[in-house]
Amino acid sequence: MTPEEQKIVRRCRAILLDFDGPVCSAFAGYPAPQVARDMLARSREAGVPISEDASTETDPMEVLRYLFEVAPERHPESERMLREAEVISVAQASPTPGAVNFMEACKETGRTLVVVSNNSAESVVSFLEAHGLTKLVKGVFGRSQTSPELMKPNPYLLGIALKEVSYEPIDCLMVGDSATDIEAAKAIGVPVVGYANKTGKGDHFRHLGSDVITESMDDIAYQIRATKLHRKLDVNPNEKEA
Question: Which of 43, 184, 219, 225 makes a 20 to 30 Å CA pair with 101?
Answer without folding.
Answer: 184
